[in-house]
Amino acid sequence: MRARYTTTCCAFVILGATLTGCTPTADTLGARTVRPESIIFDTDETPRRIAPGLTAAGTLESDRAPIAADGAFVSMIFPDGEREQLSFVGATSTGTRWQIDTNPSCVGSALTRAGEEELIVVLDSDARLAGGRVAMRTVATAFRADTGAHVWGPVDVPGPIQGPGLIFADTPKAIVSAAPTSRVMLSAHDGSVVADETRSDDVQIDYESNGVGLVRIAGELRALDTRTSSTLWDSVSLARPDGTDSTWSASVDETAGASRGTMVVLRWAAPDGAQVVAAHDVRTGRVLGSLPEARDMVTVSSPSGSHIVVASPAPGATILTAIDPVEGLLWARHITGTVTLESASDATLYLRNDAQGVALNLASGLEHARGDFAVPLAILADGTAILPTGDQSRYLLTTTTPKDRR
Fold it and tell me: Where on the tree of life does the source sit, at the highest rank (predicted)?
């Protein structure tokens, strides 16, 4: 899986400018589950060549590329002339599991995890498309990603999702404003506020994932358990990568997509400007391995979380680094040309290299397929995958044979 949070912004004002009466009153704000619509259709055309081992099973409707969550692909359906709400829909190859409707305003959604449960947190606001009324109140509601069941909320948040994870920003209400932006971080377990930048000038919120929040207090990095608010580690107890000492300071890498699940990427800086980039266990601070010193890194992980692969850009090439959250670094591979990391099953890593699709063995990094085929954009634990069709609102659903679900 690749993307972990989405924001829906002013495009909806254009799409739904003629809608009226689509927003609930402030007292009834909150995304809600509804009877799911069918967004899966029989394959009505011969698909382009797809990656080996995958078989076409139908098409999935979505106005943005679906993302993989626990047990379901999450699709987004925009409002149109026949429907007023913005919908998040969870679907598999066997049908639609759940649907969550919300106001089609400048809000968004995020995936996070509370213990063993992955959650989708969906925003709602009192903004109105008709008349261009900006949001004065925004709320967040959490649902289980596998079933759509309500978990907590709605709870008030200061504004849109900024991320990574459950970090929300109090953005200026005017189009042109010099007002500062402050943020809060919520607990994935119950929606309570774990950190609030408005309560102290010394607090800066950096990251939330997997029940852990990373904040800087008076400039010192600290990891908080978002269930208990207890400190898991701080700058003093944090394990250091090779080549650094007590004079080096750590910060969350600006590339949010490089951190995933139980792994967070930290950038270590020396007083003379030297830098080391390292992957750490987000709950313990343990060093999992060093990464190339690069910006704009991209990460994908296998559905079970057993493997995480980081793509680091290099001159004329990309360096892939595979990490086991327990064992640490597994392998590294240098690939020339333009590389786009797309997805991973628990056996195979998929990417695009220039104009070709490529499949690598996830455990070893060895290439076992390359050619003119489409690769999955996202994959579920059972091997069900989605691929592009060339139509921005339709995606190909595929299944695998048992031997391909290793």
Answer: Bacteria
End-to-end, the C-alpha distance of the chain in Å comes to 17
Shared domain check, 72 and 48: yes
What residues make up the domain containing 137? 29-152
130 and 168 part of one domain: no
Rounded alpha-carbon distances, angstroms, from residue 58 to 35, 283, 312 = 22, 40, 34
Query: pTM of the entire structure?
Result: 0.87
For position 179, what pLDDT does the model report?
A: 52
DSSP, collapsed to helix, strand or coil, labels residue 387 as: strand
Number of domains making up the chain: 2
Residues 207-261 pLDDT 10s: 999 889 999 998 899 999 999 999 999 999 999 999 999 999 999 987 767 777 7
Instruction: Write out the two tokens for 89.
Output: 């829909």
User: Do 85 and 184 fall into the same domain?
Assistant: no
Structure-token pair, residue 31: 């995304």
Query: Is the C-alpha dihedral spanning 3, 9, 11, 13 positive or negative?
Result: positive
Whether 404 has a pLDDT exceeding 70, the answer reads no
Q: Are residues 163 and 139 in the same domain?
A: no
**Cβ neighbours of 271 (radius 10 Å):** 8
Cis? peptide before 164, omega within 30° of 0: yes
What distance in Å separates the CA atoms of residue 240 and residue 280, rounded to the nearest whole number?
Answer: 9
Q: Say whether both 168 and 195 belong to one domain.
A: yes
Rounded CA-CA distance 180/199 in Å is 14
Q: How far apart are CA 73 and CA 268, in angstroms?
A: 36
* CB atoms near residue 82 (< 10 Å): 5
Tokens of 118: 């992955």
pLDDT digits (tens, 9 = 90+) for 252-286: 987 767 777 789 999 999 999 999 999 999 999 99
The values of phi and psi at residue 212, to 5°, are -125, 135
Report the amino acid identity of residue 253: D
